[in-house]
């Protein structure tokens, strides 16, 4: 491998319509002798692409890239992975405190005579209000409308703050009550599988990845988008462009064969898998599904498995 080989050496491009996109090609790492990249689990490859793309020598180093490229399934390196996600999602109970923290940071800059607009999310942030809704009216035709009106009245101060935040912060979107639950909105509307952003005079395409402030964020993995739940502090760090760090994970592979018989539901599959996986031990590990059986599962079924498996 050349001593000058680095992240920039992996860039390739493709054209869609009239648009040209650059991307970081993982096969280039294997060609350069960094490891058998094509043999790595897909989840590890998605993380590796993020490391290569975000390699700046500070938050993410080339040593981090090389360590993950040489991932050993039997004994992963005792090394942290500085994983930068493409976006962050939040529900209202855990997300509002994070936005309050950003507002407090802006106030601190203002008090110090510094432009408060310097505080902004670095990656896109979506906050979906779905957890605080209470049922005051039911069994009447306009129950939904009346419950939403009651919610806006009950939490008027919070919604005034969130409306200010949506107008004030860049890359921040607010989904009001009544739109849907966070995981449904994420799966049906927000997820792109592959995303892109302008860099210089061009565009860079990369995997859609995320962390969310809810334990069921893993539901999005059913669409092939890598994501999981984190605490508020980790989510805030990710919002500000900092990596989410964790020890190099082990990966448990689940080979799905055949297809579900008539009358057998995704929930039945999940209950069986949960028993098997808990006995095997998957805490702190990534569970990756593969095999011919995957193609026979619909997106709703895959989302159910991703959401409910331990």
Strand content: 15-25%
Number of alpha- plus pi-helical segments: 10
Radius of gyration: 22 Å
CATH class identity of the largest domain: Alpha Beta
Dominant shape: globular
Could you characterize what this model shows?
There is one protein chain. The strands form four sheets. This protein has a five-stranded parallel beta sheet with strand order 6-5-4-9-10, with helices on both faces. It has a four-stranded mixed beta sheet with strand order 1-2-8-7. Strands 3-11 form a two-stranded antiparallel sheet. The chain starts with 10 loop residues before the first strand and ends with a helix. With 310 residues, it is an alpha/beta fold. The chain has three domains: 7-82, no CATH class; 87-192 and 207-245, Aconitase, domain 3, CATH 3.30.499.10; 250-308, 3-Layer(aba) Sandwich (Aconitase, Domain 2), CATH 3.40.1060. It has helices at residues 27-31, 42-53, 62-69, 92-111, 143-154, 156-168, 182-190, 232-239, 266-280, 299-308; strands at residues 11-16, 19-24, 80-83, 87-91, 125-128, 172-175, 194-199, 202-207, 209-212, 226-229, 244-247, 251-255, 286-290. The longest helix is centred in the N-terminal third of the chain and has 20 residues, at 92-111. It is built from ten helices and 13 strands. The model has no long low-confidence stretch (mean pLDDT 93). It comes from Candidatus Marsarchaeota G2 archaeon ECH_B_SAG-C16. It holds the Pfam family Aconitase. This is Aconitate hydratase. InterPro entries: Acnase/IPM_dHydase_lsu_aba_1/3, Acoase/IPM_deHydtase_lsu_aba, Aconitase/IRP2, Aconitase_4Fe-4S_dom. Residues 78-310 form the Aconitase/3-isopropylmalate dehydratase large subunit alpha/beta/alpha domain.
């Amino acid at each position: 491998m050349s001593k000058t080989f680095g992240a920039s050496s992996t860039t390739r491009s493709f054209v869609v319509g009239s648009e040209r996109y650059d991307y970081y090609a993982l096969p280039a790492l294997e060609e350069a002798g960094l490891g058998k990249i094509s043999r790595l689990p897909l989840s590890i490859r998605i993380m590796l692409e993020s490391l290569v793309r975000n390699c700046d020598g500070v938050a993410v180093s080339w040593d981090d890239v090389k360590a993950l490229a040489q991932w050993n399934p039997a004994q992963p390196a005792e090394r942290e992975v500085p994983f930068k996600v493409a976006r962050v999602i939040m529900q209202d109970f855990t997300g509002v405190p994070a936005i309050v923290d950003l507002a407090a940071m802006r106030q601190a800059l203002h008090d110090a005579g510094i432009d408060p607009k310097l505080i902004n999310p670095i990656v896109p942030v979506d906050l979906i209000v779905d957890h605080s809704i209470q049922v005051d009216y039911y069994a009447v035709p306009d129950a939904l409308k009346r419950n939403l009106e009651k919610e806006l009245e009950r939490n008027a101060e919070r919604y005034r703050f969130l409306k200010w935040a949506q107008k004030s912060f860049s890359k921040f979107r607010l989904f009001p009550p009544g739109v849907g639950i966070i995981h449904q909105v994420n799966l049906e509307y927000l997820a792109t599988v592959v995303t892109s952003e302008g860099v210089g005079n061009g565009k860079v395409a990369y995997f859609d990845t995320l962390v969310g402030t809810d334990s069921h964020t893993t539901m999005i993995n059913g669409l092939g988008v890598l994501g999981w739940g984190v605490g508020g502090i980790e989510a805030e760090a990710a919002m500000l462009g900092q990596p989410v760090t964790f020890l190099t994970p082990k990966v448990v592979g689940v080979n799905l064969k055949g297809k579900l018989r008539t009358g057998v539901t995704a929930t039945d599959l999940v209950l069986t898998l949960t028993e098997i996986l808990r006995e095997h031990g998957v805490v702190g590990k990534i569970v990756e599904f593969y095999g011919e059986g995957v193609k026979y599962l619909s997106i709703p079924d895959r989302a159910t498995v991703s959401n409910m498996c331990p």
